[in-house]
Amino acid sequence: MQIENYQIEEHNSQLQADHRRRFDFAASEVPGAEQIIEKLVKFQVAIPSWALGTGGTRFGRFSGGGEPRNLEEKMEDIGLLHKLNRSSGAISLHIPWDIPGNIASIKALAAQYELKFDAVNSNTFQDQPNQAHSYKFGSLQNVDKAIRKQAIEHNIEVIKHGIDLGSDALTVWLADGSTFPGQLNMRKAFQNTLESLQEIYEALPDHWKVFVEYKAYEPNFYSTTVGDWGQSLLFANKLGPKAYTLVDLGHHLPNANIEQIVALLLMEGKLGGFHFNDSKYGDDDLTTGSIKPYQLFLIFNELVEGMDARGMDHATGLGWMIDASHNVKDPLEDLLQSVEAIMLAYAQALLVDRKALAEAQAESDVVRCQEILQGTFRTDLRAIVAEARLRAGGAANPIKLYRDLKVREKLISGRGLKTVATGL
Amino acid sequence: MQIENYQIEEHNSQLQADHRRRFDFAASEVPGAEQIIEKLVKFQVAIPSWALGTGGTRFGRFSGGGEPRNLEEKMEDIGLLHKLNRSSGAISLHIPWDIPGNIASIKALAAQYELKFDAVNSNTFQDQPNQAHSYKFGSLQNVDKAIRKQAIEHNIEVIKHGIDLGSDALTVWLADGSTFPGQLNMRKAFQNTLESLQEIYEALPDHWKVFVEYKAYEPNFYSTTVGDWGQSLLFANKLGPKAYTLVDLGHHLPNANIEQIVALLLMEGKLGGFHFNDSKYGDDDLTTGSIKPYQLFLIFNELVEGMDARGMDHATGLGWMIDASHNVKDPLEDLLQSVEAIMLAYAQALLVDRKALAEAQAESDVVRCQEILQGTFRTDLRAIVAEARLRAGGAANPIKLYRDLKVREKLISGRGLKTVATGL
Amino acid sequence: MQIENYQIEEHNSQLQADHRRRFDFAASEVPGAEQIIEKLVKFQVAIPSWALGTGGTRFGRFSGGGEPRNLEEKMEDIGLLHKLNRSSGAISLHIPWDIPGNIASIKALAAQYELKFDAVNSNTFQDQPNQAHSYKFGSLQNVDKAIRKQAIEHNIEVIKHGIDLGSDALTVWLADGSTFPGQLNMRKAFQNTLESLQEIYEALPDHWKVFVEYKAYEPNFYSTTVGDWGQSLLFANKLGPKAYTLVDLGHHLPNANIEQIVALLLMEGKLGGFHFNDSKYGDDDLTTGSIKPYQLFLIFNELVEGMDARGMDHATGLGWMIDASHNVKDPLEDLLQSVEAIMLAYAQALLVDRKALAEAQAESDVVRCQEILQGTFRTDLRAIVAEARLRAGGAANPIKLYRDLKVREKLISGRGLKTVATGL
Amino acid sequence: MQIENYQIEEHNSQLQADHRRRFDFAASEVPGAEQIIEKLVKFQVAIPSWALGTGGTRFGRFSGGGEPRNLEEKMEDIGLLHKLNRSSGAISLHIPWDIPGNIASIKALAAQYELKFDAVNSNTFQDQPNQAHSYKFGSLQNVDKAIRKQAIEHNIEVIKHGIDLGSDALTVWLADGSTFPGQLNMRKAFQNTLESLQEIYEALPDHWKVFVEYKAYEPNFYSTTVGDWGQSLLFANKLGPKAYTLVDLGHHLPNANIEQIVALLLMEGKLGGFHFNDSKYGDDDLTTGSIKPYQLFLIFNELVEGMDARGMDHATGLGWMIDASHNVKDPLEDLLQSVEAIMLAYAQALLVDRKALAEAQAESDVVRCQEILQGTFRTDLRAIVAEARLRAGGAANPIKLYRDLKVREKLISGRGLKTVATGL
């Protein structure tokens, strides 16, 4: 299904008076509102192709209805999101779940929905039917050279799909590690992984990047071979200038200071990509901003400060992507909430008075530092974000319009109640 | 020193135009602003007598200047806070750090500063000079009956001081526990503690409460004898109707859902008191709201919902107190920030549309539940809180006025640079 | 397949000399070796019917071969384990994964393998095909009465199956909870759950117990309605004398002192059952004893001390069960390792010099307390455990014999390489 | 006081028969017992000068009696330990707590007690009386250049003391960091710290090392500027070949896999030193091996494997030191327990059948890998460790002899009951 421009316009005109009042107040309170809006308009968050269906846990999955049955329908879903919020103009493909069949028609569809192809993702954490070797004991780290080779070739295959589509980055998330003490020689696992990544690195086109994602634990429950930012940075440095670290918010030990990790990776010129989600316990993959919105702001505060210090373009300097699992919400509504939370945190970070903060820091005036950051965070920027969305052609209230238009009901009637999207 | 009314008035009139504009907007956005303001005016947070000096860690303490040297100066400090924010009208005494000398003059001083005496706190986690027995291996739990007796008598002594001052609650925080496996028979430790508490309970006046505080760990690093809400509730139930649990935000294992604990304790009619602070790692005792402001709101959301369900008065139904340590901030500024964060979270909780939330819950509409709570949290209520403070006679911006009036400088000139307040 | 007595005898006679030398030394070092052996022989650990296949995570499952395809084959597997170690003489059934068809033949099979039917387990954390209502938003807690009713009836059905088989306990593990703040009224969720449990409780035969299992998080990632031992105890106390708490080692927040929980629940007379596994991060469901063997010993130390204080029979006083997931090991080998670790920890706990420990505790001689516990733990009791196993007719080295007899290969040849057992 | 050789001999002869029986059995069970003993004899663990008094927490300190009042008495205490266990033949000095007065006499004393001077430790986490600038807001990271300079000069001063004594390493533990979000520009804090360390590095003699210790949190509760191994490694790499990382077991986030960190740092040639202790919650600084003895073994397993792979000498390749706090035990007994636990873990690691493990790893035979490691850990090597101690001239049971000789009582009678050693 498709949302028509007139539907958005009708919706917006109904909400216009309220929005105008709030926006006028916010704009009068906030210095530089126009520049903030300009940056918000440019900022796009990629949607992963596997996040359009209902997620699950090892205990079960409770499917919703109308889930996309193929890549084309996934793109249709992202097209709906982007139509509503104008900030979801990119898709991140997962191979082999979403191998594009007819490249030309997929690219035409992307153009129709105004979507770019973000980083492509390989999968060596599951076995596919008819796969020669199993990844039960790891892929790029495996003690068996033939298995490493199979995994390397899969990654090279993924790069090729990405080239066809116009993507320019590969994300490698490895489940590799061990579940019990003694299972691995951890040094050899590192070295095998490095050699494997080097072969993949060789296959990257010149302008491509490779993102080496890290994760503290799960699905392996003793060690993970790319387990933290320090290990990822070691790999990225040994690989070369096209290799970067990717930070996923849920991939840390309890209480980790992710803001600091972000700041240091930017300092080292090695932050490449970012996966948004939220969590209370582990890699819970919840809606971004749903549990710790202040932490999200603090992270964006470091991102903005650190990118500005290097002269990086906010919109294109890093790969921005959501990586969440929608277990109890409609996936599209969930994604709308996540993108909204990201835009708000980004807007807040843009609003921080950097000069005042730097002065307070220079005086170790901790009270004032807190006043500045919390004062910014407490400022209600929802109308600023909405204005950016409106100017870009989106809906004043995406979730409300999504519900008013009965999008999910229409997807169900078109696709069926019992579809299950590929993914986790 | 004292802040004069005219100083507050001058300050307020300077900030009036800005405040008025923001308040008018907020009031127009927020249903029931007047009722919220009314409740905010009544809400008072007790300041502990030990939190007026610079705190420290086991690695050191970096004292500030002008710290209060005795109980009278501590009351003076709280008087200053209360003059500024009109929400700090209570003091929580710690015995033996603050044994009142002349009761009549202390009460007169309290009346002058408009302060009530909140719960009194005993201390059996340190040895005092000339104490007969050591609490090295616990107090109310101790294997040695003479030591238990000494600790019981101390608590009864504390109650007497409280009676003298017009307090009506005793807070018992026990460091009792063990540092190594095997050190304690944990069942006997529980039973000794119970018997000791029963003797203290017997000494409580009829209208008094005793709050049994729990803490997961520290200063004992293997087990704590009142270690979690379940244990505290066991004690409170075995003791009787005057015994309650006290929740300190920093006293939990990582990732604990404190909101749920609060909801269940209210359900059981056994939540008695609350200690505010914030933390990232353990019992960090940071400024309330400085790390997880959304969690603070969620906790207040449960407090308001749960107290309303029992028909409890928000202001008097529970003992509200800050319990923080000010290691790198001026303690008075830190307390002003904490109280402000508490008032904001309380205001937000009052604003939650409970009917809409109940409906969304009844439909398991998780997206809508989140929209309601986050929409409330995102609403900027700072002007509402400021209005409540103004109506009660306080300052529009307490920290600004505190700095403009050079309060700390004056305290230093009056008390000296190298004073050290009793406390942690 | 079946392991024949002569095969065990041959194996044992090969290992006899070595065993004898080690056992003689151990017996000479250890006071009361005979009594310990006697208790070890009686101690049986139930095997859950769902743990005989390869486990998985939400990211994937890497099946082994020869997994049991039905209840009969699961019993065959447990029969093999019990034949080897003589300590796995019970099965814990999961409904609906293992609904017994012909009761008489199932009971005959159990008798043949010398297996008892331990607690039966209900499942309301997944939807079954053709189920009227979904448990997506909870079962016994659900806001919808019809869904609660369905879940209640399922539990009553499970009790009936248990009665048929001669079981005498029901384990209720609820995934019920919420994934996002605001999703639930946590008090109402508690009360709905309590009412539902009361109906189930009514259906229990007089001599039955119901175990209310708790879990901190997962699959819900914000709150769990029976989230910790305190909540479970509240339910058990409100339900009545047949209701107990069940402790699963992996169901706690980080760093929880499980030993203390066990001690207190025994003190309250409300510990009912125990699920063994191990973990480093969360509910990792690893082989018992593989990560924290000293903690396992400390827990057994409390179990033995606490049960003895109440005069409880070690073998029958609590329901003992393994609850693990075998992601990278042969499930049967994994279970043999788990049972061995349990027997060792139990043997060590039996060996603790309780009189000496009580004396050291009475003197707060912490160094000596540690010497006693660690001295016991460091003592190599493997030969004592092996002797108990030999006297009961088992194998000197179960894993070695399992491999020598090529049990897995034979199961694969009998059942096929690509079977997948029901379960997680 | 001093322990005489004849006292050790008497003690040993009393215990000889028992020891001999156990040792003979252990030696017959364990391949290569002689080589293990040889390595154990050479292995020495340094004792920090600040760990000889009773430790404390921010809540209090419960002093024991007879604590050393100066450096000479601290050396006397370590001399006693070394006399008893022959494995504590080194002292690690902390400046300014233990500035050596007369170098020649201190060196003579060391020679008399057979002690070497291990790494010297600087202290910029506390203010000393009459210090020009405060470290309240950090030292090497400070925004104020004058403060950084003071801290740099202090470190250079510490190096000079070390040179005088014959030490060859400097350990830099920084408390630097921030307690609240926004307090620091984390990138600038890193860079200031790096520049400061570079100046210190320049002052190192050619054959010296500098150990850059990391810690996740405390005493700062938001960020730490050298917060994890990744940050420490960044510093060490930027500094040069004399800079190394130092791992303290208690300085990690919950659930960190320290074994893996050790393996990777050895792989990178950047592991320099090691601080032993144990913990359940945070940096609890408990007796080594008292909480997680299996983890200690796993760490030693990686140490031995990784050092052997680089051809490093076990005894001298890394700086081995205890860093614990003795809150409820006699510090000397506590240290005896820690050293014993370290020697046992080292002995176990030496016993691991590396060839069999490598084979099992090469086959991804996870069950066998676990059997090998756990089989080694379960083997009782206490008699092997005791034999090594005896051959080196130590006591069969150091704690027993310490108590039999009433060492503490004599120290109290010599030094007084109310002495307090400098330190934490």
TrEMBL record, chains A, B, C, D:
Record's keyword terms, sorted: Isomerase, Manganese, Metal-binding
Q: Which domain of life is it from?
A: Bacteria
SUPFAM superfamilies registered for this protein in UniProt: Xylose isomerase-like (SSF51658)
The Swiss-Prot or TrEMBL record annotates one GO molecular function as: isomerase activity
What is this protein called in UniProt?
Answer: Sugar isomerase
Q: Which organism is it from?
A: Hufsiella ginkgonis
